[in-house]
Design goal:
The protein is of the alpha+beta class and 161 residues long. The protein is built from two helices and five strands. The protein has helices at residues 4-16, 48-52; strands at 27-32, 106-108, 111-115, 121-125, 131-137. The longest helix is centred in the N-terminal third of the chain and has 13 residues, at 4-16.
Length: 161
């Protein structure tokens, strides 16, 4: 179980991050932390049973709103009213996209999947903030009608993000 500092990372990132992919068919590149191309990125498989039980999973954050009920509640009791004031950022990650971030990240066994405007997806080590890989879709003309080039966040199932 991660220490409070890494949990503050999760809470802080939930407030600040994520948005969805445009589709593998239009993938421009996937890069790992060293900048070299990577054909695929490993993910710990996520079962339907895990997704259904996400409301009680204190180790992962498997839905953009926490669970199917969309409560946005994280069930870990390591952070409480007595120690919440002592939380501080564990790390900061800056994306190459300088636009809005409006959805929650997904966390699966220590890997945080964050999306940005224009549908970039980053896989980050949730403890250190180090980039594991970056997916940058090849987009055509982007038309925004209201609130910018936002998306709905990532989802996980099986070995797919």
């Amino acid at each position: 179980m991660p220490k409070i500092v890494s949990k503050s990372l999760l809470l802080g990132s939930i407030c600040a991050a994520a948005i969805a992919t445009a589709g593998v068919a239009n993938a421009q590149e996937v890069k790992n932390a060293s900048g070299s191309a990577a054909a695929t990125a490993a993910i710990t498989p996520v079962s339907q049973e895990q997704l259904s039980g996400a409301a009680k999973d204190g180790s992962n954050f498997l839905h953009t709103n926490g669970n199917y009920e969309q409560t946005r509640f994280y069930p870990n009791n390591q952070i409480n009213r007595d120690n919440v004031a002592h939380l501080h950022p564990a790390w900061i990650f800056q994306t190459e996209v300088k636009d809005s971030l409006e959805t929650s990240p997904i966390v699966v066994n220590g890997v945080m999947y964050v999306t940005t405007s224009f549908s970039h997806v980053y896989a980050l080590d949730a403890k250190t903030g180090q980039q594991i890989w970056h997916f940058k879709p090849k987009l055509g003309l982007v038309t925004t009608y209201c609130c910018g080039p936002n998306n709905r966040g990532v989802a996980v199932y099986g070995d797919k993000v």
